[in-house]
Amino acid sequence: MSTTTAPPAAPSAARLPTASGLTFAGILRSEWIKLRTVRSTSWSYAIVVVISLGMAAIMSLALDLPGGADLPAALQTSFVVQASTFGVFFGQLVVAVLGVLVVSGEYSTGMIRSTLTAVPRRLPALWAKAAVLFTATVLVGSVANVGSFLVAAPILAGKGIHASLFDGAVIIPLLAGALYLALVAVFALGVGAILRSSAGGIAATLGMLLLLPIVLSMIPATWATDLMPYLISNAGAGMMASGGPAPAILEPWQALLVVLGWLLASLAGAALLLKRRDA
Amino acid sequence: MIQAQSLTKHYGSKTAVDAVDFTVQSGKVTGFLGPNGAGKSTTMRMIVGLSRPTAGSVTVNGKHYHEHSAPLREVGVLLDAKAVHTGRSAYNHLLAMGATHGIPARRVREVIELTGLETVARKRVGGFSLGMGQRLGIAAALLGDPATLILDEPINGLDPEGVQWVRRLVRHFAAEGRTVLLSSHLMSEMALTADHLIVLGRGRVIADAPVADIIGAATRSTVRVRSPHAGHLSTLLTRPDVTVTGLEPDVLEIVGIAASEIGDRAASAGIVLHELTPLSASLEEAYMTLTQNEVEYRTAGSPDSNAPELQEAAR
């Protein structure tokens, strides 16, 4: 501190605008400032976009279908959508880590005490965090998925496979992928708030996204097979289904409800514990 | 004004705060004094709702902290220097804190200037020294220009200039009629800064009185006398309220009589003095005496088994 100049003898008596009170709009603004002013956010979102575009390019280039133009239009559309949304599988892992860190980072650094002192009713801070993370992720996810389409479509067109972005069977799965990314991020935020630890939160979330489907598939029982579509990552894939060859067990809107169920369970647990526990 | 009524906090079977009652008045600086683990921080955390009381309640200006419509305008709090995300700059931290209450960036720059953080405000907090972290914590507490200021060990890690600045700051706040509560485990610091003291020991209020009273009651001055006729002098001074202790054959420590009076009486009896030194008991000693009593009182049942640990706690 030797470099700083002598502090003034007394605080300035400048008064603040009398209207300055605690509002939800203010809490939203605060959480937005917090999200954009840590490096993990920009890194995570950059990785989501890069992986998405990269995967779309790899998938499109690898696809080898002699006589693509002879395929039915619906199947052509399905190929393009699959190539464009392939990155979501990896992107979900990145936004899940981000979602956990948004809240566990506050616990590990002690920031949560500042947050809850400013918002002593606590729950508005959780809702604002969720809303800001959801909005940012949906926007980044849309950019990533539409961008991926713009990468994949020309490559596949060269192979005689065509699809239009403005076809409902294309744009809806692309945006559903973005929506899924945002829902996973908020789900992970809830898990992070429940466990209050970065390592624990990341392990638990990635476990549910990645390991649960593998473990379940190794159980040789019908109930295990029946349960598969209801896992969060499988339901996420179901949200983006584009009418491929295999008929899906859940309609996309049903898959969305399943993902929402996971998210609500996680947020409800987080809210309950946030309200009850000492910070 | 902060009012606590039978405020209690248990952590499992351990009682951190044990049914304390106190009132922190506005317009003066109130010091929260006690050894580590006395319950100062826990009490402060309960005031701003970070910890939930097991029993009892505490209000700020008549309301629970979370009931205020603009908590940061009501109470500015420094709980510990590490309540900041290490990956964010000081400026952005304050901006985000203020945004919840619609506090403008202008005010953020103002508190940065006030706390002398201009040169580091754009740097990430992770690289801050303890002193800079402390200044940032104080900046956050001042952000809402609050009516009540609560500072937990504010001078921790500050350089002497910073310590003086904190003293002037809290004096100024109190002079404006605001409420100031600050904690310390250093009695000497409290003697310089506070008007009123609430002394905590093992979760209880041991003393709640003006600083001067507490220091006066706990401090008794001693006079050291060196004389070749110490024995004679000792009998000369014997009175019920005077204690004379012979340290060496020619050295006495005398409590209960002023140095000037000892000198006068020695002179009139023709006794030669080689040394006559008034020794003020240090504030730290006074404070140890104060908390030691609480420790002894609390462990009357098993004085031997717990004594070392408790003395450690009192320190």
From TrEMBL, chain A:
Coiled coil: none
Highest taxon in the source lineage: Bacteria
TM segment ranges: 43-63, 83-105, 126-157, 169-195, 202-223, 253-274
Full protein name: Uncharacterized protein
Alphabetical UniProt keywords: Membrane, Transmembrane, Transmembrane helix
From TrEMBL, chain B:
SMART domains: AAA
Residue ranges crossing the lipid bilayer per the database entry: none
Pfam families reported for this sequence: ABC_tran
Gene3D superfamilies given in the database record: P-loop containing nucleotide triphosphate hydrolases (3.40.50.300)
Keywords assigned: ATP-binding, Nucleotide-binding, Transport
A molecular-function term among this protein's GO annotations: ATP hydrolysis activity
InterPro entries reported in the protein's UniProt record: AAA+_ATPase (IPR003593), ABC_transporter-like_ATP-bd (IPR003439), P-loop_NTPase (IPR027417)
Keyword Glycoprotein listed: no
Family: Belongs to the ABC transporter superfamily.
UniProt-recorded name of the protein: ABC-2 type transport system ATP-binding protein
Organism ancestry: Bacteria, Bacillati, Actinomycetota, Actinomycetes, Micrococcales
